[in-house]
Amino acid sequence: MNNYEKVVNLLIEKNKTVSTMESCTGGLLASSITNIDNSSSIFKFGAVTYSNEYKIKMGVSSAVIDKYTVYSAETAREMSRAITDYTGSNYGVGVTGQINKQDPNNPYGSVGEVFISIYDKGKNMFYEYDINTDKSTREENKVFICDYTIERFLDIINKE
Q: Which residue segment(s) compose the domain that 72 sits in?
């Protein structure tokens, strides 16, 4: 059983739900979760918010983006909280960063640095991770980020 299956099964067992707001992973995390049988009982919503405009429309504070940039732990935190609030999920996952090349629309931060936040609404707690990607292709980096994220999420829900 892979980690995505473990997460889905544990969330079903615990009667919990999750939603995602992804930027650099382009919805791969949501897709990977929904590839698992019975995921419809635990997965509420996935948003791909490449632009600042749509992060803000989904509930991310523009003041946070302005102060810390779109590529920051603070923005990932806002993404995870906003998607949880929007959907009423027990958990929200936010992922933002730059992989493989500089974003011409947001020339801040380091290429290869990715920020992940997992929000546990019941505990009002954020779990935050800052990782660096080093794979040669965008696709390989997206898989690496999603696999890392699901491992951290599995650790979190296993502790409940």
A: 3-155
Q: Are 6 and 154 in contact (CB under 8 A)?
A: yes
pLDDT computed for residue 106 by the predictor: 61
Task: Report d(CA 127, CA 35) in Å as an integer.
Answer: 24
pLDDT single digits (tens) 99-127: 876 666 666 677 779 999 999 999 999 99
For residues 24 and 110, what is the distance between their CA atoms, to the nearest angstrom? 13
Is there a domain that residue 45 lies in? yes
Q: Is residue 87 part of a domain?
A: yes
What's the structural domain count of the chain? 1
| Distance, CA of 44 to CA of 65 (rounded, Å) | 25
Reported as type and span, the H/E element at residue 41 is none
pTM of the shown model: 0.94
Alpha helices in 16-137 (DSSP H): 28-34, 52-57, 62-68, 73-87
**For 61-97, what is each residue's pLDDT tens digit?**
999 999 998 999 999 999 999 999 999 999 999 999 9
Residue 160 lies in a domain: no
Which tokens hold the place of 126?
Answer: 């954020």
**What tokens does 15 get?**
């009667």
In CATH, what number is assigned to the domain containing residue 151? Answer: 3.90.950.20
